C-alpha cells in the first residue's frame, strides 16, 4: 500500500467527518423547527485495494443522508391530528353556543319566561289595572324578542361556520398543489443511484401533509420513487405530481346557500369523517342546525298553545273589528281548514262568540262548530265566514288576500271569543296574543299591545272574571302534546340541558384525542426529534475523527517530504 493510498484513506475519513459535522449542525439548528425530521449519516466501508495477497481498506465513505422516521407512526399521528382538529372545531362551536344561550345570566330565555308568567300572576291581584296588563304585554314582547334574538345570533354563527367551510376549499387546493409540486422535486432529486433522502424537500412535504391532515382526514402512502400519494375516503387527491382540485358547491337549504366541498373531477362530495372540515360541517348541520330546529319548534309550539288558551278568553273590552293574521289562498277558500296550509293545524271542535251590548249590558253567546273529520262536510274558511256572518250583530268577509275579517255591524256591540276546542282561532290568528309562526317572526299582536284592555283575562264574558288569566299563569306548568307531553319550561330546560350534556361529552372526547396526540408526538420525538445532548456527543465524535484524520494527513505529508528528499 503506497503513501498515496494512505492519503486517500485519510481524505475519505476527513470528508466523512465533515459531512457528519454538517448534518449534526443542521440537526441542532432545527431543534425547534416544527415537523423537522432528524437526519442521520449512513457510513459504509470504502472499496478495498489489492496489494499482493492482501486486501487493504481505503477507509470510510458516506453512502447516504437519510431521515429518522417511522412511517407507521407518522400515519397514526396524522390520524390523531385529524381527530383532534374535528373535536376542537366542535368544542369551539359548543363554547359559542353556550355563551349565546347564557343560561346562567340575567338575560337568558328562562328568566324571560319566568318574568312573563310572573307578570300574568300580577293581573290576578289587580285585574282592573291597565298598567299591570301593559307590563305583561311588554314582558311578552321581551320574551318574543329574546327568542328571535337568540335564534338570529345562533343563525349567524351557523352562517359564519358555513363561510369557513367555503374558505377551506381554497386552503385544501393550495396544500394539494404544494404536495404535488414537492413530489416532483423529490423524485427528481432522489432519482438515479443516490440513496440519500431529499431531506429539506421531505420536511416541506411533511409540513404540508400535517396541515392537510388537520383540515381533512387523509391517508398518505409513499411510493418507490419517493413521491407520496394522498387519499381521502377512497379517492386519491394527489399522485406523483398530479393534484385533484376541490370546489365549494352551494346548495339552497333552510333559507341560506349552504356549502358542500366536492371533488372537481367527479362533482361528488369529499368524503372525510375527521379533520377540521368534518368538525365544521357537523357543527353547522347538527350542533347549530339541530339547536335552531328545536328552538324554532319551541317558539312555534309555544305561541300556538298559548294562543289557544288566550283566544278562548275575553278582555276588559271586546272587539269592534278584527282580522286574521294568517291567510288562505282564494282557490282554497272552500277546502277543509286543516288542508289549506295554515302554519298551525286546527282540529274538530267548536268555539263561542260572545256579543256584549254596551248599552244594555246583555251578553249573547253563539256556538260555532268546526267539523274536521276528513269528510266532504268538513268546515272551510267560507263555511266559517258564513257561520259568523249569520250571527245577528256581526258581519264576516274574506279579504282579497284571503284573511278573515269580522266586524260588529251594530252600534254599542262588542264581541269576543270563548271555549275554542278546535284551535281554529289560534290557527288563523284571530284574537291571539302572539303573532308569527316561527322563532324569527315571533311578536305580540298589535291589537293587544295597542290596547292593554284587550288582554284576555276573563273566561265567562267581557270583563267578568280572571279565570282565563289563571289558566295563562299556570300555562308554563301544563303538559302539552306539542312538547311530547312535557311542559314549556321542561322542554326548554331539556333543550338547554341537551346542549350542555353534548358539549361535556364532546369536551371529554376531544381531551382524549389531545392526550393521544401528545402521546404519539412524544413517541415521534424519540424517533425523529433532535436531542441536543446526543447531537453534542456526535459533534465531539466527528470533531475527534476530523482531528485524527488531519493529523494522519500531516504525518503522511512529512513522510512524503522525507521520501522526496532522499
What does this structure look like?
This protein has 566 residues and is of the alpha+beta class. It has helices at 3-29, 71-101, 109-125, 130-190, 199-215, 276-310, 381-389, 424-428, 446-449, 467-473, 488-528, 532-565, and strands spanning 39-45, 48-51, 54-57, 60-67, 219-222, 228-232, 235-239, 242-243, 246-253, 256-263, 268-269, 321-323, 349-357, 363-370, 394-398, 404-408, 413-418, 434-435, 443-444. A four-stranded antiparallel beta sheet has the order 5-6-7-8. Strands 9-10-11 form a three-stranded antiparallel beta sheet. A hairpin with a 5-residue loop joins strand 13 and strand 14 (363-370). Helix 1 packs antiparallel against helix 12 and helix 2 (71-101) packs parallel to helix 6. The model has no long low-confidence stretch (mean pLDDT 90).
What's this entry about, in short?
This protein is of the alpha+beta class and 566 residues long.
Keywords:
alpha+beta, 17% strand, 566 residues, 3-stranded antiparallel beta sheet, 12 helices, 4-stranded antiparallel beta sheet, rod-shaped
Query: What share of the residues does DSSP label as strand, in percent?
Result: 15-25%
The dominant shape is rod-shaped
Overall mean pLDDT: 90
Determine the fraction of residues in helical runs and give it as a percent range.
40-55%
* Estimated radius of gyration: 40 Å
Distance between the termini: 19 Å
pLDDT under 50 segments (min length 5)? none
Return the structural class: alpha+beta
By DSSP, the count of extended strands is: 19
- Number of DSSP helical runs: 12
Layout of helices and strands, plus pairs?
Layout (H helix, E strand, L loop, with lengths): L2 H27 L9 E7 L2 E4 L2 E4 L2 E8 L3 H31 L7 H17 L4 H61 L8 H17 L3 E4 L5 E5 L2 E5 L2 E2 L2 E8 L2 E8 L4 E2 L6 H35 L10 E3 L25 E9 L5 E8 L10 H9 L4 E5 L5 E5 L4 E6 L5 H5 L5 E2 L7 E2 L1 H4 L17 H7 L14 H41 L3 H34 L1
Antiparallel strand pairs: 1-4, 2-3, 5-6, 6-7, 7-8, 9-10, 10-11, 12-16, 13-14, 13-17, 15-16, 18-19
Helix pairs in contact: 1-12, 2-4, 2-5, 2-6, 2-11, 3-4, 3-10, 4-5, 4-6, 6-11
Amino acid at each position: 500500500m503506497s503513501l498515496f493510498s494512505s492519503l486517500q484513506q485519510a481524505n475519505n475519513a476527513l470528508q466523512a467527518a465533515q459531512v457528519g459535522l454538517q448534518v449534526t449542525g443542521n440537526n441542532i439548528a432545527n431543534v425547534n423547527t416544527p415537523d423537522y425530521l432528524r437526519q442521520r449519516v449512513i457510513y459504509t466501508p470504502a472499496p478495498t485495494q489489492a496489494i499482493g495477497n492482501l486486501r487493504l481498506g481505503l477507509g470510510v465513505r458516506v453512502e447516504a443522508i437519510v431521515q429518522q422516521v417511522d412511517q407507521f407512526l407518522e400515519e397514526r399521528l396524522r390520524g390523531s391530528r385529524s381527530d383532534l382538529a374535528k373535536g376542537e372545531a366542535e368544542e369551539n362551536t359548543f363554547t359559542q353556543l353556550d355563551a349565546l344561550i347564557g343560561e346562567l345570566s340575567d338575560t337568558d330565555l328562562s328568566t324571560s319566561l319566568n318574568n312573563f308568567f310572573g307578570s300574568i300572576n300580577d293581573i290576578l291581584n289587580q285585574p282592573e289595572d291597565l298598567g299591570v296588563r301593559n307590563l305583561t304585554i311588554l314582558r311578552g314582547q321581551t320574551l318574543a324578542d329574546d327568542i328571535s334574538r337568540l335564534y338570529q345570533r345562533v343563525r349567524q354563527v351557523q352562517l359564519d361556520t358555513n363561510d369557513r367551510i367555503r374558505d377551506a376549499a381554497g386552503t385544501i387546493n393550495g396544500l394539494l398543489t404544494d404536495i404535488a409540486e414537492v413530489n416532483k422535486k423529490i423524485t427528481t432529486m432522489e432519482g438515479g443511484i443516490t440513496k440519500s433522502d431529499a431531506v429539506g424537500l421531505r420536511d416541506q412535504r411533511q409540513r404540508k401533509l400535517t396541515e392537510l391532515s388537520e383540515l381533512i382526514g387523509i391517508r398518505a402512502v409513499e411510493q418507490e420513487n419517493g413521491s407520496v400519494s394522498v387519499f381521502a375516503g377512497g379517492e386519491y387527491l394527489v399522485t406523483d405530481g398530479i393534484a385533484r382540485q376541490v370546489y365549494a358547491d352551494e346548495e339552497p337549504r333552510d333559507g341560506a346557500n349552504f356549502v358542500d366541498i366536492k371533488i372537481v373531477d367527479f362533482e361528488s362530495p369529499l368524503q372525510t369523517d375527521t379533520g377540521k372540515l368534518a368538525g365544521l360541517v357537523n357543527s353547522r348541520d347538527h350542533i347549530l342546525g339541530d339547536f335552531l330546529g328545536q328552538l324554532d319548534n319551541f317558539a312555534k309550539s309555544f305561541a300556538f298553545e298559548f294562543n289557544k288558551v288566550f283566544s278562548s278568553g275575553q278582555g276588559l273590552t271586546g272587539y269592534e273589528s278584527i282580522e286574521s293574521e294568517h291567510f288562505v289562498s282564494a282557490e282554497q277558500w272552500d277546502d277543509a281548514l286543516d288542508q289549506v296550509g295554515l302554519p298551525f293545524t286546527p282540529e274538530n271542535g267548536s268555539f263561542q262568540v260572545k256579543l256584549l251590548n254596551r248599552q244594555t249590558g246583555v251578553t249573547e253567546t253563539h256556538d260555532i262548530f268546526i267539523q274536521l273529520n276528513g269528510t266532504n262536510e268538513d268546515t272551510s274558511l267560507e263555511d266559517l265566514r258564513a257561520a259568523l256572518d249569520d250571527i245577528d250583530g256581526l258581519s264576516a268577509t274574506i279579504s282579497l288576500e284571503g284573511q278573515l275579517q269580522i266586524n260588529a255591524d251594530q252600534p254599542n256591540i262588542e264581541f269576543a271569543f270563548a271555549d275554542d276546542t278546535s284551535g281554529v282561532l289560534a290557527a288563523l290568528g284571530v284574537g291571539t296574543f302572539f303573532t308569527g309562526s316561527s322563532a324569527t317572526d315571533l311578536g305580540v299582536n298589535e291589537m293587544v299591545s295597542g290596547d292593554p284592555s284587550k288582554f284576555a283575562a276573563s273566561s265567562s264574558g267581557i270583563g267578568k272574571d280572571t279565570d282565563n288569566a289563571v289558566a295563562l299563569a299556570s300555562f308554563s306548568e301544563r303538559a302539552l302534546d306539542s312538547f311530547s307531553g312535557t311542559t314549556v319550561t321542561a322542554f326548554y330546560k331539556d333543550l338547554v340541558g341537551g346542549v350542555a350534556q353534548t358539549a361535556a361529552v364532546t369536551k371529554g372526547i376531544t381531551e382524549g384525542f389531545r392526550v393521544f396526540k401528545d402521546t404519539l408526538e412524544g413517541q415521534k420525538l424519540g424517533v425523529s426529534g433532535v436531542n441536543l445532548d446526543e447531537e453534542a456527543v456526535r459533534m465531539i465524535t466527528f470533531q475527534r475523527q476530523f482531528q485524527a484524520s488531519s493529523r494522519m494527513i500531516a504525518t503522511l505529508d512529512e513522510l512524503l517530504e522525507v521520501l522526496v528528499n532522499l
